[in-house]
Design a protein that fits this description.
The protein is α+β, with helices and mostly antiparallel strands and 152 residues long. It is built from 6 helices and 4 strands. It has a 4-stranded antiparallel beta sheet with strand order 1-2-4-3, covered by helices on one side. A hairpin with a 7-residue loop joins β1 and β2. The chain is globular and about 50 Å long. The mean pLDDT is 91.
Length: 152
C-alpha cells in the first residue's frame, strides 16, 4: 500500500498466493513485520473500495516524471530511461568524476538536494557515476530540486 497510497514508511501491504507458498511466506513475514495497526488496515480496506483512487496512479506518476525530466533538461545530468517506477536515474559523468557516494554527499551539503548513489544497490559497490532521483514529491519540491541540480 505504501507506493499505491503514498505512505511508503508505513510498510503495510497484502499478499495473495497459493496455499503452499503462503505457508512459506508467513514463516518469513513473522520475523520481518511485527504488526500493522488496526486503523491503517481499515483505512486501506476502505481505499481499495474506491478504484478511482489508484487506477489513475500510472498517469499521476508519469506526469511527475515528465515534470522532473523537463525541469532537468537544462542540467548537465544525463537522464537514463525509466519506466514503472517513481525513480529516475541520472548519470553525472559530465559534472564530476568523483565516486557517487561522495557526489551525493556534496549535493546535500552544497546544494540541499538528497539523492541516492546507485552503487548502494550493488553487492560489490559497482560505481557507474549514476544517482537515483525520486519524483514522488510535490511539484514545488521537484521544481526546486531540479533548479538546484541545474546549478551543479
Amino acid at each position: 500500500f505504501g507506493k499505491t497510497f503514498h505512505v511508503t514508511g508505513w510498510r503495510v501491504g497484502y499478499c495473495v498466493a497459493p496455499r503452499p507458498l503462503m505457508e512459506e511466506i508467513r514463516k518469513v513475514h513473522q520475523f520481518a513485520m511485527f504488526a500493522a495497526d488496526t486503523p491503517m488496515q481499515y483505512g486501506f480496506a476502505h481505499l481499495l473500495q474506491q478504484p478511482a483512487h489508484y487506477q489513475g496512479l500510472a498517469a499521476f506518476y508519469q506526469r511527475k516524471r515528465d515534470l522532473l525530466a523537463s525541469a532537468l533538461a537544462g542540467s548537465r545530468l544525463t537522464l537514463l530511461p525509466s519506466a514503472g517506477s517513481f525513480f529516475m536515474l541520472a548519470s553525472y559523468e559530465r559534472v564530476s568524476d568523483e565516486p557517487d557516494s561522495l557526489f551525493v554527499q556534496r549535493l546535500i551539503r552544497d546544494h540541499g538536494v538528497a539523492t541516492i548513489p546507485v552503487s548502494a544497490f550493488y553487492h560489490d559497490g559497482t560505481d557507474q557515476r549514476v544517482i537515483r532521483l525520486s519524483f514522488s514529491k510535490d511539484d514545488d519540491t521537484l521544481l526546486a530540486g531540479a533548479e538546484r541540480l541545474c546549478g551543479v
